[in-house]
Amino acid sequence: METAKNHFFTDISVMLGRSMRHIFRSMDTIITVCITPIAMMLLFVYVLGGAIQTGTDNYVNYLLPGILLMAIASGIAYTAYRLFMDKQRGIFERFHTMPISRSAVLWGHVLTSLVSNAISVLVIILAALIMGFRSSAGILPWLAVAGILALFTLALIWVAAIAGLSAKTMEGASAFSYPLIFLPFISSAFVPTESMPSVVRAFAENQPVTSIVNAIRALLSGQPVGNEIWVALAWCVGILLVAYFFAMRVYKKRV
Amino acid sequence: MEKAIEVKGLRKSFKDTEVLKGVDFEVKRGEIFALLGSNGAGKTTAVKILTTLLKPDRGSVTVNGFDVTSNPDHVRQAISLTGQFAAVDEVLTGRENLIMIAKLRYLKSPRLVADDLLRRFGLTDAADRRASTYSGGMRRRLDIALSLVGKPQIIFLDEPTTGLDPEARIEAWKIVKELADGGTTVLLTTQYLEEAEQLADRIAILHEGRIIASGTLSDLKKLFPTAKVEYVEKQPTLEEIFLSIVGKKEAK
Lengths: 255, 252
Fold this sequence. Notes:
A: mainly alpha; elongated; B: alpha/beta; four-stranded antiparallel sheet; ABC2_TM (chain A); transmembrane (chain A); ABC2_TM_bact-type (chain A)
């Protein structure tokens, strides 16, 4: 036991190095997690944006939080895929018969997902800056935004872990992310919820994306965040705890 | 310690199916031990328990003097497993695969260890190619090389030659023999009688969750009535024909 614990950080850094190589060697991953959200942003700002009434003069500012959430949702689909492949190919078995920390194997994937999503979020923010995104927010609100996004990523990572570890096929492993990528459309991410018919509006206003988007938008524009941030945090922590519980059960049972 | 592995009264069920129904066997240090059985006999389950991947329901399993249930970390220090499907990271190159495992075994100079194993397994030329471009035989060689990183004392090979072409199979046999010559204990499972006959010092036949016979090849032969001398014209097997034709081609 001792050896395993002493080497936890060595193990986890080897695991991180390994999965980061996987990401940078896969054009497909880079396109999906960075280029697709930027293309969406271009489409919404320069094609559809002119017809969308948000009550703000800078639509990029309005749009960015939702685009970031979409990028994270598509990014964690690859986490599920990588977990699935490791299980399928017997890589987990190889690691688990070695005297290394068992949890490092799983946490390596979690850390990779956090790091890679942070990179794609940064790239997208840079693209948004070029397109005219401006924020008056200081260091603290930015840190709060980073915290919310990290918590959201972590919550979805465990959802991805359930899917990746219990899936029977590669398609099954990443299919769970489609509804997640779609959720921002039925939220305040692209248009104000007031413009929606009542049933849709009720759904939109009570699903996690809206509160997270509103909280981030308020933080970035220097507005008071009000209750929205607590609702957003509650959603993230709630999803995280439930998904973590089930993911660990699947991990212990199947791997 | 004389015994590398000791298994007593091992039982394991999955839901309602009893896969292992009381298995006993011992493996001596430095020998090649073959667990022979058809598909579904329970070979892989037995190997997974011996390598700490699964927990036994009942019975005692000792590997390198440590109990697999109460002391799995000590067991893991001494073993390595080459599973049924080559567990190599296909996105990484052969060299990166070896370096990764060397780092996880906390070796001092992972690069040198990798270079050495690449040379030993004839993978130096392919070292910097991604493992996904390797042939089945090369992949299996890399897989076995990964298992040798850090020189574990006991190596488990679960059907090491399943899915390999005849040449790659003979190559794998050669590697296993060299390992045993170097003092490593090898437990392998196989469904090929010939493989057990070629490689193993001792053989145990696992059938429907029980060991129904075990011993050296000559022990097992004694279970049959004494040999009658018969004169038969020996026809070459297709494998012998294949190998001799292929061998000729390569000689040219």
